[in-house]
Write a structure and sequence with these properties.
The chain has 364 residues and is α/β, with parallel strands linked by helices. Helix content is 37%, strand content 14%. Helix 1 crosses helix 14, helix 7 packs across helix 11 and helix 10 packs across helix 13.
């Protein structure tokens, strides 16, 4: 690593989700610089609290979705000339257009969380949400962005992915080989404290996360309590709130500064995640690190992490809301969840920061 000047390029630090934590841990492991479009007030205070190395903010923040994507492309295309000063560049999320500003002999590594879903596997889902008079513009912009993405990924020297599911998706849509590097969990941050009387969901309030189905399940179980963690800009926040507004057992909490977030994980009975074909989500691993089992759907990448009936329970791939209800009542009682604590702790160690640090240094 001597004489190898490294920078990580991550599109935005919007919140305090696992990919922001991943970039911080990657930077710590490599002692690299970090550049991002912007760091929002809801994310980590990188300059003051977390990072000892150089931080570069490329542009000002914006949250309006369409304009955000266009401005993001513009910023990485025209405001990243500083990348010529680096020997190794790691690209994360939607910033590949900056590759045009790298030197030819720069080592370029792409950490692929997923190929952009609005361009590939979930394209029709995104298109359905667009108003009819904006569909032509959406199609045109998507076409341009897809050409850019496919041209940019060709320039990468190495592609890393976060799971077998993402690796398969990358191969299916783009025919590229990749190596798996699982994101790490800080075992000292997620730990067992005790078990209280609630279940936990900490995925975004978005259609692809299927939080509405979790709400519907707990509407059928007024004797069971769930805390649903959300962020202020979640796209389906109002819709989900309306679904649950008459049910006191369904509680919504937001933690802009991560205050009490860890405590919510430490003290829950179990966590629940049922997203559509998720590329990777660190929360189930964080849940297991706190000795808490996970309820998920028997599909895609979760089969890489959850051990059925040992560290959680996988409901059938073709499930209904009643399957969630039945699984919680039968397999996720307080006593049964406590019995899974040791298996959860053991499994979480396979995703430790120590193992991640060793692997990322080998690749770089």
């Amino acid at each position: 690593m001597k004489n190898n000047k490294i920078i990580i390029l991550h599109d935005t630090f919007l919140y305090k989700w696992w990919w922001e934590r991943l970039m911080i841990m990657m930077q710590k492991a490599l002692k690299s610089d970090l550049a991002t479009w912007f760091v929002s007030k809801w994310s980590f205070d990188l300059k003051r609290q977390w990072v000892s190395w150089k931080i570069i903010e490329i542009s000002s923040e914006i949250f309006a979705k369409w304009f955000r994507h266009i401005k993001l492309k513009w910023a990485f295309l025209f405001k990243t000339k500083f990348l010529r000063d680096y020997d190794t560049i790691i690209f994360s999320w939607d910033c590949l257009s900056a590759v045009r500003n790298c030197n030819k002999d720069t080592k370029k590594i792409y950490y692929c969380h997923t190929p952009p879903r609005y361009l590939y596997d979930l394209r029709w889902e995104y298109l359905k949400k667009v108003k009819w008079y904006l569909k032509p513009a959406f199609e045109l912009i998507s076409f341009i962005f897809k050409i850019m993405y496919e041209n940019d990924i060709k320039k990468m020297d190495l592609i890393l992915t976060n799971s077998k599911n993402t690796q398969t998706r990358l191969k299916k849509f783009l025919w590229y080989e990749s190596n798996i590097l699982y994101p790490p969990v800080r075992l000292d941050e997620f730990k067992y404290i005790e078990t209280w009387d609630y279940y936990l969901s900490f995925a975004r309030l978005a259609d692809a996360k299927r939080i509405d189905n979790i709400v519907e399940a707990f509407k059928q179980m007024p004797d069971k309590k769930i805390i649903i963690i959300y962020w202020e800009n979640d796209p389906q926040k109002r819709k989900i709130f309306d679904l649950a507004k008459w049910y006191k057992n369904i509680i919504f909490k937001t933690f802009p500064w991560n205050v009490w977030f860890y405590e919510c994980v430490w003290k829950c009975i179990a966590s629940i995640y049922i997203p559509i074909d998720e590329d990777f989500w660190m929360s189930p691993v964080e849940s297991m690190a706190a000795w808490k089992p996970v309820l998920w759907v028997n599909e895609w990448w979760l089969k890489e992490t959850i051990i059925h009936k040992k560290t959680g329970y996988l409901i059938p791939e073709w499930w209904e809301v009643n399957d969630i209800v039945n699984a919680i009542r039968k397999y996720f009682t307080v006593d049964k969840c406590i019995q899974m604590r040791k298996d959860c702790e053991k499994r979480a160690k396979d995703f430790s920061y120590k193992e991640f640090e060793k692997q990322i240094k080998t690749y770089v």
